[in-house]
Specification:
Helices cover 73% and strands 0% of the residues.
Length: 219
């Protein structure tokens, strides 16, 4: 008789014992109920409904129904309807910190932050610009969500400042550079969403950084 561990290993290697065929068939049926790109469909449906009805008037059940999925599927992907808007925040924060930490040695604080911003831009730039625009519209229409967005930005700044300290940058330079960096990212994203659709976010981040440097030297 095979142990549970043996069965798990057999399933993972797609080598199924004949005695487990009934169980395997059940597993296959369960997997088959997962719809393709259900997370993306839920996000698109959510932003459509937020625009039509408002965030507060939209429920998870309505989002799932618009996407042609079940409410249970919605909660497999998102903890609540706010997480549709803020999903990926932890990953973005990680990109910012990693970019700062891995910047070449000898760079100034703002230059190191620039590496973090470019790492974040490479992640954000993979998303659909039209959904990013809808997200911005939802935030603009909802003060509570804007407050949470500002809290997220503050968290990004704090994380980058800590990464700068690990590089030997003392305060207040670490904090100032990190705070300035989050402002640069916010401005670049707004331009990416609302401006020329042919321009990449990474380019806009670099231009915003250059503009910040110009302001700081008074030119």
């Amino acid at each position: 008789m095979m142990s549970v561990t043996d069965i798990s290993l057999e399933l993972m290697s797609v080598t199924v014992n004949a005695a487990m065929s009934a169980t395997v068939n059940t597993e296959v049926q369960q997997v088959g109920r997962w719809e393709p790109d259900s997370r993306g469909r839920l996000r698109e449906a959510a932003f459509e409904l937020y625009a039509e009805r408002g965030f507060d008037q939209t429920t998870a059940a309505q989002i799932a129904a618009r996407a042609g999925l079940t409410e249970r599927t919605f909660f497999r992907h998102f903890a609540d309807k706010r997480e549709v808007i803020f999903a990926g925040s932890a990953l973005l924060r990680g990109q910012l910190v990693r970019g700062v930490a891995e910047a070449p040695h000898g760079l100034g604080a703002l230059e190191a932050v620039g590496y973090g911003l470019q790492a974040a831009a490479s992640l954000i730039g993979q998303s659909r610009r039209d959904l990013a625009a809808k997200r911005q519209a939802v935030l603009a229409a909802n003060p509570e969500l804007r407050e949470r967005e500002l809290s997220k930005l503050a968290g990004y700044a704090a994380a980058m400042a800590e990464a700068l300290r690990h590089r030997g940058v003392a305060d207040p330079h670490a904090t100032l550079a990190a705070e300035a960096g989050t402002t640069v990212l916010r401005v670049a994203i707004e331009e990416w969403v609302n401006g020329d659709r042919e321009r990449e976010l990474s380019t806009l981040v670099e231009e915003s950084l250059a503009q910040l440097r110009a302001v700081t030297v008074g030119s």
